[in-house]
Amino acid sequence: MADQKFADALNEQISNEFAAQQQYIGAAVYYDSETLPQLAAFFYRQAVEERNHAMIMVQYLLDTDQDVRIPDVKSQQTHYDDVVGPVKMALEQEKRVTDEINALFKLARDSGDFRAEQFLNWFVKEQVEEVSSMTDLLNVVERSKDNPLLVEDFMAREQLGDQGADPSAPPAAGGAL
User: Fold this and answer.
1) DSSP per residue, 54-68
2) H/E element holding 126?
3) For 78-112, how does the pLDDT look when each residue is reduced to its tens digit (9 = 90+)?
4) What structural domains does the chain harbor?
5) Residue 99 needs a FRET pair 20 to 30 A away by CA distance; which of 12, 19, 84, 135 works?
6) Nearest-angstrom CA–CA distance, 19 and 83
7) Rounded (5°) CA angle 80-86-89
8) Which CA distances in Å does 75 have to 22, 82, 111, 116, 171?
9) pLDDT tens, 110-137?
10) d(C-alpha 148, C-alpha 141), whole Å
11) By three-state DSSP, how is residue 159 classified?
């Protein structure tokens, strides 16, 4: 029963991760339409990262002989009032995902599901990094909202979110696509 409760909750999180992927694609499309290629590239990479998070969760469910449910896709916002909007959305999303991962971790711990708890350790660490980088980016974007080319320079210089694959990440279904 503990396995099933966790599997149901993880399937819900898979849906959340795919939704985050779509939201990040929407943000990237907005920045592309504004001819801000560094910000667009950052959010396209973030979208791939969220997809990979979902696929890591899919692989865990497959490895533990649980059913996997792939969610429907709904359209996402691609227009914002200003360059701050997508980053503000992303930070709020990362904070929400942090809460969701922490709730999954608590469920695993409270039910004595040690393998689920161990699996989630990487996600707990990942969310600290995600919230931190989005907080930094929001600070830069808010300070430079009247001249978004300064954000582009910052993104090119700092290469935020372009650290490559994390070798400590759990395996993803379908391999490293």
Assistant:
1) HHHHHHHHHHTT---
2) helix 114-143
3) 899 999 999 999 999 999 999 999 999 999 999 99
4) 2-158 (1.20.1260.10)
5) 84
6) 21
7) 115
8) 8, 20, 36, 31, 28
9) 999 999 999 999 999 999 999 999 999 9
10) 7
11) coil
